[in-house]
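Whiteboard transcription, Tuesday session. T.W. wrote the structure tokens on the left side:
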């Protein structure tokens, strides 16, 4: 007869095993990876009426690795993200969340995949906060349940007992930036990557200083399950993506334009977007439909060319909304470069020609960025830059690699041996990065489109079987 104590321990072990199912097995058995995220430029949003975002693409890559569907459930507050994990309504929280002691004590997590800093943001023209001792007495807002709120509590308990702040129950950083921009608060604490992407929408906001040390972004997993195998898969995937450069490509795709524009340039764009764009927006949309282009891309190109001025002209002889040269206008069938409709059609046609002439194995969105470079600098010079990129062990199919080598076209050491010779390569880089920046602002100003639930299509990072649940603008 077996020892009763042994039987009791065995029963407890069996019950514990039943209570803590293996997370990886459960995902594979269900055929779904359920991810909770939030709607923001750095996590999960709609682009061209399709789901996109750094976190979304990375989660899609994990679903592809596991051979299951990706199911996305949006949360409306940071607290709701963790509530969904507690209720086992999601397997993973992929939402740009930093690793904190409080969270780590309650939720299993992946290895870090991004390094961020907490930035103290204020309105230009107001007294700049330069260090933590400048925070007391100022109206401070943070997202409720964020790592920033946790950092402020530590600061209050250890150094600044008079420190106070308001926690906004939301998941979208734009909500607290709005409060500062509208003078309803003095300071907002935000993650560095989010502010870099969003600053184009808030050109009056500036960074006062960085609060605390660098922070690590991680994925959190549902508690009360055996997550060891799932964490191992996630960590291995992140390591392989880092080593192969795939993770860097994702970062460039969603954040690569963030540093391209000055605060003054963004402010000027926002003014023109309110004053000039409404006059031409219906025409831009109409012509974009004719040429099967995203209207926001066409609008961004037109702004970069002329600031939406149909009578623009330069000393070199380019004219009109799309600043066409006379030979290009004739080639594109444009009789009157000052006619906005003709100019937009000519520019759209020329851009599509550039994109069509690129090698078929260049994927999107790199194909679009390179077509824009060719639009600015010429296809021959782009071919030279791609050849240089390959010669110096870069990938000529990736814009971020080609972008690094385009400025070499200005140096005699390099251009004297190239087929097409000298070119203003740095100007082409600035041209493309500016357009990416303008496009990003237009996409995030066009809020009604983000309230739709479109049919999903797979992209390079998302498996064929992907579906979305209940997308709303948060």
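and on the right, the sequence the group agreed on:
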């Amino acid at each position: 007869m077996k020892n009763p104590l042994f039987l009791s321990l065995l029963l407890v072990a069996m019950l514990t095993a039943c209570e803590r199912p293996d997370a990886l097995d459960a995902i594979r058995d269900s055929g779904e990876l359920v991810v909770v995220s939030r709607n923001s430029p750095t996590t999960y949003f709609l682009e061209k009426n399709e789901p996109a975002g750094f976190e979304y693409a990375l989660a899609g890559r994990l679903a592809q690795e596991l051979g299951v569907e990706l199911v996305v459930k949006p949360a409306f507050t940071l607290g709701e993200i963790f509530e969904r994990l507690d209720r086992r309504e999601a397997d993973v929280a992929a939402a740009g969340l930093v690793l904190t002691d409080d969270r780590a004590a309650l939720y299993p997590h992946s290895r870090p995949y991004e390094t961020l800093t907490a930035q103290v943001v204020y309105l230009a023209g107001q007294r700049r906060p330069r260090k933590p001792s400048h925070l007391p007495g100022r109206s401070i807002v943070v997202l409720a349940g964020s790592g920033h709120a946790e950092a402020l509590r530590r600061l209050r308990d250890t150094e600044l007992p008079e420190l106070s702040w308001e926690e906004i129950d939301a998941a979208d950083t734009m909500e607290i930036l709005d409060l500062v921009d509208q003078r309803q608060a003095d300071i907002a604490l935000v993650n560095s990557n989010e502010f870099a992407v969003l600053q184009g929408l808030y050109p009056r906001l500036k960074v006062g200083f960085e609060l605390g040390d660098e922070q690590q972004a991680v994925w959190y997993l549902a508690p009360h399950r055996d997550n060891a195998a799932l964490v191992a898969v996630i960590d291995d995937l992140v390591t392989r993506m880092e080593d192969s450069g795939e993770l860097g490509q994702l970062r460039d795709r969603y954040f690569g334009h963030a540093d391209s524009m000055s605060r003054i340039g963004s402010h000027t764009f926002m003014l023109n977007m309110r004053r000039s764009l409404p006059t031409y927006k219906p025409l831009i949309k109409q012509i974009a439909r004719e040429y099967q282009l995203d209207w926001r891309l066409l609008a961004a190109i037109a702004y970069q060319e002329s600031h939406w001025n149909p009578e623009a002209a330069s000393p070199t002889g380019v004219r009109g909304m799309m600043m066409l040269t006379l030979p290009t206008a004739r080639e594109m069938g444009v009789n009157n470069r000052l006619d906005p409709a003709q100019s937009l059609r000519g520019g759209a046609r020329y851009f599509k020609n550039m994109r069509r002439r690129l090698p078929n194995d260049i994927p999107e969105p790199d194909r679009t960025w390179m077509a824009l470079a060719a639009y600015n600098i010429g296809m021959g010079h782009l071919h030279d830059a791609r050849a240089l990129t390959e010669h110096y062990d870069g990938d000529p199919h990736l814009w971020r690699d080609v972008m690094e080598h385009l400025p070499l076209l200005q140096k005699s050491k390099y251009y004297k041996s190239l087929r097409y010779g000298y070119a203003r390569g740095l100007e082409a880089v600035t041209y493309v990065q500016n357009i990416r920046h303008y496009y990003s602002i237009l996409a995030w100003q066009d809020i009604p489109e983000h309230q739709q639930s479109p049919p999903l299509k797979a992209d390079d990072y998302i498996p064929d079987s992907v579906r979305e649940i209940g997308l709303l603008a948060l």
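Someone added at the bottom: The radius of gyration is 25 Å.
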